[in-house]
UniProtKB/TrEMBL annotation:
It comes from Nocardioides hankookensis. This is Alanine racemase. Belongs to the alanine racemase family. The keyword Repressor does not apply. The keyword Ribosomal protein does not apply. InterPro entries: Ala_racemase, Ala_racemase/Decarboxylase_C, Ala_racemase_C, Ala_racemase_N, Ala_racemase_pyridoxalP-BS, PLP-binding_barrel. The gene is alr.
Length: 376
């Protein structure tokens, strides 16, 4: 029998961790949950994560685009599913036909959804998003009354059912930021406007991961949890220890090791020079695989039970680590980041080394890496 091929580099996702995190967060918040699986499940695999979240009791799944929502339906997901980011001319008809809740920010979007519902011959499931201060997507309060009035008229004539009203927090990872109180107040005003127009949505939702954990008053009828579902901290320095488990481990196979003499320099631009004799190892992943170039000379990996620093610039396909005189054989495991239980760096460690956030670390990693699922 031929041996199993060795993975040059892979992303290992623990689905049991996803289920544990979803259950933990549902118990904490005490309201229904929407597990957000946009961007291919934050790099963990959209279909697989959605399935695990449903198994753990998540009543809703959320994605950004209609394409993502339709892919979930094609993969067999039949539960409540919301999408929220479109451009003029997108195929709302396919989303309506698939029973997907769609979001409108404007009168123009409502007109497109109305036309699509007519083509499909069934009412749309519609949610309205109000901009409460993030100044990104959503209807500004200056147009909110018009959007609500049109939505109420469409509900009366059977074009759609308004299933939700929602918004998004700008600074929930900073619990004391004044924007949190201000946005919640605007959201409550927006809900009053909708109620006065006769709308009685099934769910009102404002809180993302940090808001769901840190701001009970923002939980309303539903919380949208993305990052925390994957076991990562949405508000470093503020989040209590909930026992969440990071679900992603990124590993590679050590390609080469060799001695390096004092005075020798490493990688493009010779940005690092050995002060003493040492040894180095070649890790066969780079920025084409989502390894941040900003991690050059800063981030660490785990090799042979020890943390090893990246030396020199991260290249397109590879980077070099300092083995501090050790010479583990090529073929040894290299853990870029993982849960941290065995001494390996975490996604948060990489985020801090790269001057970014853990969201970016896990969503950008991939490239030529394979993905493997475990259930621990």
């Amino acid at each position: 029998m031929s041996p199993l091929p060795v993975a040059r580099a892979e992303i290992v996702v623990d689905l049991a961790a996803i289920r544990h995190n979803v259950r933990t967060l549902r118990e904490l918040t005490g309201v229904p949950m929407m597990t957000v699986v946009k961007a291919d499940g934050y790099g963990h695999g959209m279909v697989e994560v959605a399935r695990a979240a449903r198994e753990a009791g998540s009543e809703w799944v959320g994605v950004a685009t209609i394409d993502e929502a339709l892919a979930l339906r094609e993969a067999g997901d039949t539960g409540r599913l919301l999408c929220w980011l479109t451009v003029p001319g997108e195929d709302h008809a396919a989303a309506i036909a698939a029973g997907i809740d769609v979001t409108a920010y404007s009168l123009a979007e409502l007109h497109e959804i109305e036309d699509a519902a007519g083509v499909v011959g069934r009412p749309a499931r519609l949610q309205l998003k109000v901009d409460t201060g993030l100044s990104r997507g959503g209807a500004p309060m200056s147009t909110w009354s018009d959007v609500v009035a049109a939505a109420a008229a469409g509900e009366r004539d059977g074009t759609w059912t308004v299933t939700g009203i929602w918004s998004h927090l700008a600074a929930s990872d900073e619990p004391d930021h004044p924007a949190n109180d201000a946005q919640e107040a605007v959201f409550r005003d927006a809900l009053d406007v909708a109620e006065a127009a006769g709308l009685r949505p099934e769910v009102r939702h404002l809180a993302n991961s940090a808001g769901a954990i840190l701001r009970p008053s923002a939980r309303f009828d539903l919380v949208r949890v993305g990052l925390a579902s994957y076991g990562l901290d949405p508000a470093p320095g503020h989040t209590p220890d909930l026992g969440l488990r990071p679900a992603m481990t990124v590993r590679a196979t050590l390609a080469q090791t060799k001695p390096l003499a004092a005075g020798a320099s490493v990688s493009y631009g010779h940005t690092w020079t050995a002060e003493t004799d040492t040894t180095v190892g070649l890790v066969p992943v780079g920025y084409a695989d989502g390894v941040p170039r900003h991690a050059s000379n800063v981030a660490q990996v785990l090799v042979d039970g020890k943390r090893r620093a990246i030396r020199g610039r991260v290249c397109m396909d590879q980077f070099v680590v300092d083995l501090d005189g050790d010479l583990p054989a090529p073929g040894h495991d290299v853990v870029l980041f993982g849960p941290g239980r065995d001494g390996e760096p975490t996604a948060q460690d990489w985020a801090e080394a790269s001057g970014t956030i853990s969201y970016e670390i896990v969503t950008r990693v991939g490239g030529r890496m394979t993905r493997r699922y475990v259930d621990k």
